Each structure stands twice: as C-alpha cells, then as structure tokens.
Amino acid sequence: MAHQQFPHLFAKLNLGPFELPNRVVMGSMHTGLEEVKGGHERLAAYYGERAKGGVGLIITGGISPNFAGRVSPFSAQLSWAWQVKHHALVTEAVHAYGGKIVMQILHAGRYAFHPLCVAPSRLKAPINKFTPFSLGGFGIGKTIRDFTNCARLARKAGYDGVEIMGSEGYLLHQFVAPRTNRRKDEFGGSFVNRIRLPLEIVRKIRAACGPDFLLIYRLSLLDLVENGMQWEETIQFARALERVGVHVLNSGIGWHESRIPTIATMVPRAAFTEATRRIRSEIKIPVIAVNRINMPEVAEAVLARGDADLVSLARPMLADPEWTRKAWTGRRDEINTCIACNQACLDQIFEGKVATCLVNPRAANETLIPNTRAKKSRRVAVVGAGPAGLACAVEAARLGHSVTLYEGRSDIGGQFDLARRIPGKEEFVETIRYFRTQISLLGITLRLNHSVTADELLAPASAFEAVIVAAGVRPRVIPLLAEARARGDSRVVAYDELLLGKVKPGSRVAVIGAGGIGFDVATFLLAPADHSLSLTPAGFFKHWGIRYEARGGVEGIKPEAQGSGRKVYLLQRKDEKLGIRLGKTTGWIHRKMLADQGVTMMAGVTYGAYASAGLEITRGGKSDVLDVDQIVICAGQESENRLFSELTARGAPVFIIGGAAEAGELDAKRAISQGVHLAAELENRLK
Ligand code: FAD
Ligand code: NAP
Ligand code: SF4
Asked: Atom of ligand 2 at shortest distance to CA of 475?
C-alpha cells in the first residue's frame, strides 16, 4: 500500500540488479575518514547508522582508481587486493541493516592537488596551483585499466555497485567538455571523440563486473562555466551511457571552479531539478536529482512532478542519519535539517579536517562521542536557549537527565533567531523548529521570558545538581554607538536592533565591522523588498545568469543582480581584503553578491565622528566623509558570563559553554558542538 504522506518517496524501485525499498539515495560525500587511521571502522559506524536509518541506497565518498587521480597526495585509492578487507568493514555494516551501498570511483584529473596530476590537456584549473600533465595514449589505456581494476576490487569488497564520477569538473568531465579538452587524437575534438573515454570505462567495468553489479554514472547536467557542454550534447551522452549498460544516471550541477553557488544555503531548495526532468524525458533508465533537497516534502514534490526517479541527499544524511525513518513514520518535524551552511562538512574538508555537521556533531564521530543513557538521572538547569543551550539541553534530556531550560527572551534560538532573518539564511529556522520539537518530545521544562538569577538557581527548592550557563553574547557597544545613544541619536544602531525590526533601514547606510555579521547585515539591507532570491529558482537563475539552452548553462547570458537599491558601505579597520575570513566554500559567494550589488567595501578605516554631513573616516592618511543616514554597528560581541562568575564564586556545580565561555570566533558550530559534548560527558564530569 502506498505511503500516505509521501507516496512517491516510499515507492519501491527496481534498478535491475536489485530493488530499492524507497527513493532516498545518500549522495557521495567525502568525510576525510577514508584517510585517517582507524577510518574504515569509523566509516562502518557512520554508514551503518545511515543504513539503519532506512536510506534506500548509499553512495560512498570518492575513491581514486590510481595515484594521479587522488584529490590530494594522501587521499583514498583502491588499487590493491589487500585493501579489500578495509572496505568490507563498511559494506558488512551496511548490509547488516539490509542496506545497499555502491562505491564512487573518482579521478580528480586537473583538480588533483599534487604535482603528478593529469588531464586531457595541459591546462591548469583556476582553483589549483598545479598544472596537469596531458595523458598520452598509454596513460589513457592505463586509466581505463585502473578504473576497471578499482571496480573489480569494489565488487570483491562487497559493494553492490559503483558510481563513476563524471561531473563537477573531474577527469571524465574534463574529457567531455571542450573547455578542458584540446586533444587532437581520438579522445578529443569532436563530441564523439570527447565522450569516448567515459564510455570505454563503462563498457570495461560492465564486462569485468557483470550485469548484476549496479553501475551509476554521474553526469553533469549544467556545467555553469563557459565552454562547457551544450544541452543537446548532454542528451546524446546520456543516451550513449544508457546504451553501454549504465543502470542509473545521477546528476551533477556545476564545476568546482564555477562562480555560481550550487549547494550553499542561499540556493533555493531543489533549484536544479528541472535539469533532471529534462534529461529524464530523453532516456529510460532512472535518474537521480541532486542539490538542496533537504526535507521529505521537497523530495516528494520533486518525484511527484516527475522531475526524477530518485532523490539524492548528501549533507542532509550527515545532519540526520534517521531522516528516512522519520519521514516514513510521520515524524517529519523531528528531522534535524541540513541548513546548507557547509561550515562543518565541506569547509572542514577544505581545511584538511574530518567532516562532521554543524547541527549534528556526532556525524562521522559516531564512535567517539559517548551515546549511552546516564546510569543516574541528574537535575540539570541550562541557562540560555541559543544554539549552545538548546543542543546541551536536548542531548542531556535524550541521555536521561531531567532538564529545565531558561530563556530570557520570548522565544528560543538566541543569535540564531537573528541569523534566520537574513535573506538567504531562511533555512536556519529549521534548526529552531527541530529543537522546539525535541524540547516537547523529551519533556524538557522550558521557561521563556525568564532571565534566571543565581539566587533562583541555587535556591534549595530548585535542587539542581548541575547548572550549565549558555547565556551567549551581547553585541559590542563601541564609543560611536554609546555616544549616539547618550545624545539620543537613533541613526546609529546595533545589528540586533535592525534585524529585530526595532528600527527601519536607512537609504544610505554604513555598516561598521565586516565579519560574518557585517556581511549578513549588508545582505539584509540589499535584499529586494518583495522576494528573497533563495526561495524560487526563477529569481535565483536570473540573478546568476543561468539558462539551460546556453553552452555550459551560462555562456552569453548577462546576470541580473537584483537588490533594494540602497547604498551600502561596508567598513573595517584591518587593512586586508574584506571577507577573507568567511567560510572557505561560501565566502566568495557573499563577497560576489555584495560586489555585484555595488557595495562599497573599505579596509584600513579609522572611524571619526558622525556629524551632520555624514560619517567622518580616515583611510590611508586621507580624510573623507561618507554621506549616510544610518550606521549599523557589527563590531563583534562580548561574552555574557556574569552569571557564571557569580555561580562559581558561590561554589555551585556550574559549567559554561558557547558564546558565554568565549565570544571570539564564536559560531553555531562551536556552540552546538560544545553543548553536545558537555551533555554526553555530564555523567562522568559530575562523578
Ligand atoms: P546565543 O545565541 O547568544 O544565545 C544565548 C541565549 O541565552 C540568548 O537567547 C539569551 O537571551 C539567553 N540568556 C542570556 N542570559 C540569560 C539568563 N540569565 N537567563 C535566561 N536566558 C538567558 N553562526 C554560524 O555558525 N553560522 C552562521 O551563518 C551564522 N550567521 C549569523 C548571522 C547573524 C545575523 C548572527 C547575529 C549570528 C550568526 N551566527 C552564525 C552566530 C551564531 O548565531 C552564534 O554563534 C550562536 O548563536 C551562539 O550561540 P550561544 O548559544 O552561545 O549564544
Ligand atoms: P567577527 O567576525 O569577529 O567580526 C567583527 C568585526 O567587527 C570585524 O570586522 C572587526 O574588524 C570589527 N570590530 C571589532 N571590534 C571593533 C571595534 N571596537 N570597533 C570597530 N570595529 C570593530 O564577528 P561577527 O561579525 O560579529 O560574527 C560573530 C560570529 O558569528 C563570527 O565568529 C562568525 O563566525 C559567526 N558568523 C558566521 C557567519 C557565516 O556565514 N559563517 C555569518 C555571521 C556570523 P576590524 O577590527 O578590522 O574593524
Ligand atoms: Fe548541512 Fe551545515 Fe551540517 Fe554541512 S554542516 S551537513 S551544510 S547543516
């Protein structure tokens, strides 16, 4: 019988070699565990938990078929028989829960970050410092053999199939696209020649592994770079892949070097599934839709519209391993939603760390963070319902403690409740919804509008065995703001006053402080009044200049940056490029969006008075006056730690986490992680 709420999501699907119980695919994601000591044991726990959570099919992070193809010198490679037993740990863990898992084979080509990288032609990628060697005839033959050997070993390790990575600008994509293929031999030039290598690899793998071994090809449907693929070519290539025995076509959007966001939080949900709908109508094999599909109703709508046969959720599976089971059992509100921030997953990979998840620090750390119920339930008070306090309260209650959560404001969320008001960060509301649901399910006593004092916490009647101070931060009041307040000048405001709607935005605004919040406030000021670009694909496509019919999806199209028309100045004292400390994978998007909308960015500024003519500044020894009618102060924060000091002085069993503990470089990743870790260790720390 069809599932009542999500009938398309929970319909079975026969892929040929086997049948899937539902349409949910965990998309490929590199975690970094592939390379660390004991990583396969941790990977087994990580994938096992997702299989237990009911996902139909798992695709592993990319594994290289040879040394040249490694993303970096120490990245994972599968080429030798002795490696099979490590991978078998992973496949056994997944099969133990009745799950299916395929291994992705990824050859990075010119994206390999080492001097021995290879590519169809000797053309350096703009995001790599190494220039690749051009593969000769022998090198191409060896690459084909290495792919085949890798697939054969994957089969031995118990994988149910392989996915061949042919998108995002990696080696096979580099062969197919004219942008990177300038060869004159039978692997370059005409379209038929350019697709020869991937087709040959598919044929050889199919012959070596047999028809009952699932073969997925990840094909780029929108390159989002100049001189990429033309849509007609993509159709022809998809048909050719079908003919040579590919069972399922997965989709890819954009090259890593393209300057259009494809998965960040400002990308509308399911923004690119029109691409899968278009290709699906041209072929018979099932098609997987990707990118920014993070909730069951979004996935259901994609499938119901006929845009795809399956949906791929990569980061959402980091955020909640039980995503599928929760959707299946009608517990959609319990899902810990991926907010597409990239902060703990992709950004950490780019920093050479193991990936995890901002909203779920247990992800990829399943074996490291204690997860056992407390032997003795404790009465715990948590002060502050920002990300740190919420995470700690929920985790402590889940592990069996009795928790009272105090919040001075009328609602939960703390500074995250400000973040969700930024156009492009609408997703953040889901995290607040998740915590709200958990508070109710776990029976946490929530006291809103209650700025709790030390006296109350220590009163004998409260009988708290531990107090956790998660009182967060308050915006820093710099002299410019203090002086304006003293003289009753409401033109100088703190960022929270603006975001909470206590003051109206001016028409010519100087934003002081260009950290994450300064950038967000500038975005808030510039957003079009009637819509957010993040909510509908049409506005987003127009803003970034994307059209399916254009070569590469972009060539010859003029992007139309849309905005409020306000004049915004973004200022900082440091003499360095603005925004260079923003997230590794998203900072460029914030910088580009503001630049496209004409924000004047100034570094090395010394602030003077705010006189009637405007804000006086000095820069490079020169004085200037900015003609502005409002100044928004985004000059960092200070810890709210007075309660902690008082409780400590009075000898209470007290802990401090999040911004209350340390305001410098605070973000929700650190706040939530500290909350979860403290709750998990609470029993031991109270011994
Ligand atoms: P807070 O969020 O400050 O929460 C503390 C809570 O404690 C508050 O609700 C306060 O009312 C309450 N409280 C204080 N004293 C008491 C008391 N005595 N009794 C009861 N309650 C009390 N971070 C990211 O990681 N990624 C982002 O993209 C991001 N974007 C942001 C955008 C904006 C516009 C802003 C303002 C912040 C953003 N942040 C972002 C930062 C993130 O929101 C903070 O790092 C995070 O909220 C800090 O969490 P916290 O729990 O330590 O403190
Ligand atoms: P921040 O990143 O530390 O930036 C504070 C800014 O204020 C800096 O540009 C600093 O630059 C300026 N400043 C500091 N003291 C000042 C003073 N006395 N007078 C004038 N200017 C001063 O902090 P934030 O922007 O408030 O953000 C807080 C945290 O939230 C950050 O750590 C960030 O990680 C997180 N956040 C993250 C995101 C995200 O997208 N990932 C978005 C928003 C917030 P100068 O000293 O050079 O002037
Ligand atoms: Fe999603 Fe952010 Fe978690 Fe990555 S860190 S999985 S983007 S919520």
From this structure: 26
